[in-house]
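Deliverable D5.2: sample structural annotation.
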Amino acid sequence: MMNNIILSNDNNIADNQFTYPDLRKRCVELAAVLSEMLHCEQGLIIDDNESAIGLYITMLAALELEYAFCFASEWQALTTEQRNEISQCHMSIVKVKLLSVDNI
């Protein structure tokens, strides 16, 4: 299952303009969305093709919810047997697109 979560599509805001309160707000927003979507699941596979700030916020949200997580690139490096074993834990793939990645 692939879930797309878009927290902001304002391409006029650069990643490096975010301050700690902005990051905290985005983390809380994402944690709320994830807890609604994944109410009975305790694991995330994070698509690591997005902006660095998007990854950071996703990791913070996962930690806040006490979810285990790994990156899609790590997932793809696993054997089929390893993937099947992890899939039994009901992991979900979450793709986060937070902001423009032009300046990353």
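Annotation notes: The chain has four helices and four strands. Residues 2-10+19-97 form one domain.
The annotation will be released with the project's public dataset once the embargo ends.
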